[in-house]
Design brief:
Radius of gyration: 34 Å
Oligomer: single chain
Mean pLDDT: 89
Distance between the termini: 76 Å
CATH topology of the largest domain: BirA Bifunctional Protein, domain 2
Helix content: 25-40%
Shape: globular
CATH architecture of the largest domain: 2-Layer Sandwich
CATH class of the largest domain: Alpha Beta
């Protein structure tokens, strides 16, 4: 067996397919672009959908990649098995309607067995095939595989519901009898069964059918190849590692964790090894996820990152690591992956800062969660129960980040258990919510074959002219059919040249009209999109008969186009201003350029302060007032990058690119329309800034006339405020409002003092009324105070003066009932719990509550029941 590093193996795979005519696609961001069906990029094919569904025609129909991916459906098994990971790399080769089974199989066998490449012993390879796929069997045997190394598997059919589907073949490596974990006669002891001896390394999918809504299958017009080889598994074979974790992809992280731990060593204790593996896996995943723009939060991707960080921290605690440590692993991850992912080390300081901040946050939450767990056990003890409910266990998991196994471990140490079935029910509810939030989008569509067939050339001339007088109508599409003419109704047109911009990069499509030779409007252009072969596809409402081959005048709505141009240029100025003010870590996460406003999404850790937002707005306006020339140069990508151009989206640029620069301030790749000088924008005004997702912020803004109107409206509102506050000058409004706020604060303080005085007077009366109940000194009373806050203050006074064993107070506030129970420390030790008492008496006010053993509170909707609650408290204590 060759001795190869993970970097060498990755490079060898890509080089092999490059020599077989494939284009190497770079690893895309883990955060999907324009794909609501995915939370993360979870495979190599996920980034190829645009090619397989026909929305984009690749320049080369043979592609290969090493794609970083995240899967989170089995996090709980990470560290406990040899192969489970959250982040992994998927090596793949893809054919978009080019080669098929014969080539895919023969090349796979060549890569795996040729001495020039992997050089594996062919006797150690087994292939599973779909029983009805006789072609796959034939090609494997032709490549050199003996029939006894081919295994029929009914499951070898890739099908995700409606859309592309087909048989697949899986390749297994026989690690030898030393890896057997089943008896020889076990029914699962075969390649493809549940035996660690046979390691699946490659899956090749032959996408050849369309799964129709009626559950029938029809052949696809263009058959495709989609393959996936897990880099981590392949490395474990080359490096003779028992599991993926004993390879150069993980061991450096594990060794650094050993240094940080309390005299723990990998390979000495099974539970410790699980924790080392969890930390190594999760450190990789969070580093790459945050590097691609996702940030910790309570929803979506951010929730996944937060969960991974917390699981790793808990594992660190079990290894004796008390201080923040996870952020220290970022440089180690960067060094391991540097050859293919240099960006990790380039932004290691930012990544460490984000992770360290989250570590600090969770270490504070950890103590709160343990406190809740102790309260739960106290409540169980008081009621002679032994099982924490699934709902409470899920709260510990969801709110405090406690994995189920951690809750189980703490409970087991104290002789308690957890309702794991109930926990699973709550977990499923959360998964259902997440699934619904992603929507009901198809994961992959079927190619729109008609558009793929249309290859007539079409030229966009809208960069320099908004009217074309003699555009030839090349193609008419009505109801997915090519026709020669259309009289009225909806249709799609392709012209030999057009001034209409096709929606792209956030810039909306142009609108306008089409005129015939008589100057009559014969169609309205309502939308323009890019067809798979690059033509501008016009969606139109036909008003008068139109014919293929005739020439027409195409006229863009100039006012609409001009306003869009201004807002598009503004997004470039805004993008650079955000980088200048907030830091280079900000990246565009989406944009929308409409005629009346612009929307710009960007990645940023935390909210944007008012001061920074003001700096950004001022910096954009500074460039407008400088009257910078806006120039566009068409060049190649390499030259554009040397010019300092920023690429806003992954993999959308061709060999020829347009570089748009606003003076020396902003330089970006962009295929959109722009003004000639920044002074055309007139004015820029931010109208809102908000968070829209995990680590993604959104700015909405207006320019030109819309900005002027916005400011006029703001001024009108300010004048109304001045009038309402009886202020003579608008500039004096802030001072006047501050004065009013101080007056309100003083009045509130006076009111609070009066309420406290009244409450103390009532309390003195209540505190004097001590009852003897079942051998206990008890004070009860319904008093008039402002709410729960003052009840707690009275309880503090009661406790400081040791006035009785039990205190029960109630009050009505804003139409609601409040109850508070306090128990002396001596009586808590004797077994009396405030929480038990509050649960009993809160029924009288149609409410509920809880708290600590020495103090609890409740709220309810029935103030009339407060007196009955006092009686119920006495009855409860009498029966103890």
């Amino acid at each position: 067996m060759k001795q190869l590093s993970s970097s060498q193996i990755r490079a060898m795979y890509l080089d092999f397919f490059k020599q077989h005519g494939h284009t190497i696609e770079p690893s895309a961001s883990l955060v999907p672009k324009d794909d609501p069906s995915l939370l993360w990029i979870n495979s190599g094919v996920a980034t190829m959908k645009k090619y397989f569904d026909g929305s984009v025609v690749p320049k080369n129909h043979r592609l290969t990649s090493s794609q970083k991916s995240i899967r989170t459906n089995d996090i709980e098994n990470v560290g406990k098995t040899a192969r489970h990971h959250t982040l992994f790399e998927m090596l793949g080769n893809f054919s978009v309607g080019d080669y098929f089974k014969k080539e895919a199989i023969s090349w796979a066998f060549e890569l795996l067995t040729s001495p020039e490449w992997f050089g594996w012993d062919k006797e150690k390879l087994y292939m599973t095939v779909y029983p009805k796929d006789t072609d796959a069997k034939k090609y494997w045997q032709a490549a050199g595989v003996s029939p006894d190394h081919l295994v029929d598997m009914e499951d070898n059919f890739w099908d995700i519901g409606q859309g592309p589907s087909g048989p697949d073949t899986e390749i297994f490596y026989d690690r030898g009898p030393g890896h057997d974990d089943l008896e020889p006669d076990d029914p699962e002891n075969y390649p493809g069964g549940e035996n660690e001896r046979y390691l699946e390394v490659w899956n090749i999918v032959f996408s050849q059918f369309n799964h129709k809504p009626d559950n029938t299958y029809e052949p696809l017009p263009r058959k495709n190849i989609d393959t996936g080889m897990g880099l981590e598994r392949v490395v474990s074979i080359f490096q003779n590692a028992p599991t993926n974790f004993e390879t150069d992809l993980f061991l450096p992280i594990i060794h650094k964790t050993e240094e940080l731990s309390n005299n723990k060593n990998y390979g000495k204790n099974d539970q410790d090894d699980v924790d080392f593996k969890i930390i190594a896996d999760h450190a990789r995943a969070i580093t790459f996820a945050i590097g691609d723009g996702a940030l910790p939060s309570n929803v979506g991707r951010g929730y996944v990152i937060r969960r991974l960080i917390r699981r790793a921290i808990v594992s660190g605690h079990r290894l004796g690591i008390e201080e923040d440590f996870l952020y220290k692993l970022v440089p180690i991850v960067g060094e391991i992956m540097q050859s293919y992912y240099p960006e990790v080390l380039n932004q290691k300081d930012y990544l460490a800062k984000v992770i360290h901040s989250e570590e600090k946050r969770f270490n504070e939450t950890l103590s709160d969660g343990l406190s809740l767990l102790n309260d739960l056990m106290d409540n169980l003890k008081s009621t002679n129960q032994k099982v924490v409910s699934g709902k409470d266990a899920f709260k510990l998991y969801d709110t405090y980040g406690f994995p189920l196994e951690m809750t189980r471990e703490y409970l087991n140490d104290e002789g308690y258990s957890v309702d794991e079935d109930g926990f699973k029910v709550e977990m499923q509810k959360q998964k259902d919510r997440a699934r619904n939030a992603r929507g009901d989008k198809k994961s992959m569509g079927v190619q729109r074959d008609l558009l793929l067939e249309i290859k007539t050339p079409s030229k966009y001339v809208g960069y320099t002219q908004l009217n074309v007088s003699n555009a030839k109508l090349l193609d008419i599409i009505v109801n997915e059919k090519l026709v020669d003419s259309v009289a009225r109704g909806d249709a799609e047109f392709i012209f030999d040249e057009t001034p209409f911009y096709a929606e792209m990069g956030g810039q909306v499509a142009d609108q306008g009209v089409i005129k015939n030779s008589n100057g009559e409007i014969c169609a309205k252009v309502t939308d323009v999109q890019s067809a798979p072969n690059g033509q501008n596809l016009h969606t139109v409402e036909v008003l008068k008969p139109m014919n293929k081959g005739e020439k027409y005048e195409l006229d863009v709505d100039r006012q609409f186009h001009s306003k869009v141009e201004k807002n598009h240029t503004a997004t470039h100025l805004l993008d650079q201003s955000l980088r200048n003010v907030l830091g280079d870590h900000t990246q565009q996460a989406g944009s929308l350029v409409e005629p009346n406003y612009l929307r710009f999404d960007f990645t940023h850790f935390g909210s944007v302060t008012e001061a920074d937002l003001h700096k950004v707005e001022a910096l954009v306006n500074e460039q407008i007032f400088k009257e910078l020339p806006v120039q566009t140069i068409e060049t190649d990508q390499a030259t554009g990058k040397k010019m300092g151009a920023i690429a806003l989206f992954d993999n959308k640029y061709g060999d020829k690119v347009r570089v748009v620069s606003a003076g020396d301030f902003s330089v970006e790749f962009c295929g959109g329309d722009h003004v000639k000088n920044t002074n055309e924008l007139g004015l820029f005004k931010i109208t809102s800034e908000s968070g829209v997702g995990a680590g993604v912020r959104r700015i909405e803004a207006v320019t030109s006339e819309d900005a002027f109107n916005y400011l006029n409206n703001e001024e009108s509102i300010l004048k109304q405020v001045a009038s309402a506050t009886k202020t003579h000058k608008v500039e004096e409004v802030p001072e006047k409002i501050s004065q009013i706020q101080n007056e309100i604060k003083e009045l509130q303080q006076k009111q609070e003092k009066l309420e406290t005085k009244v409450a103390n007077q009532q309390a003195n009366s209540v505190f004097e009324n001590v009852q003897e109940v079942g051998g206990l000194k008890v004070i009860t009373g319904v008093i008039k105070v402002s709410g729960m806050g003052q009840l707690r203050q009275l309880a503090d006074t009661w406790r400081n003066k040791s006035l009785s064993d039990v205190l029960v107070l109630g009050t009505e506030s804003k139409g609601k009932a409040n109850l508070m129970v306090a128990v002396s420390d001596d009586q808590v030790k004797a077994g009396i719990k405030s929480g038990d008492l509050i649960k009993t008496i809160s029924k009288e006010i149609n409410g509920g509550g809880g708290g600590r053993p020495n103090m609890a509170q409740a709220g309810g909707s029935n103030p009339a029941g407060l007196s009955k609650a006092m009686d119920a408290a006495v009855n409860y204590l009498e029966e103890l």
